[in-house]
Amino acid sequence: MCVGLVVWCDCGSFWWRTGWDAARKRPIYAWHPAVEPERAAARIARRYADLRAAQTTPGTGVRP
Q: What angle do CA 51, 5, 31 make, to 5 degrees?
């Protein structure tokens, strides 16, 4: 299953996309300091759960 979540680290922070700013026509990102990996993981897991809950199975319209 693909939910569209990519996380990366720039050696100081973890980054992930959280939405789209239609007015500025660009993505919105969240970040968390890399020195707190457990807290970053918890935030990322919540984002993953949100994306998964909002996703439907292609062609069926049914949520997993």
A: 100
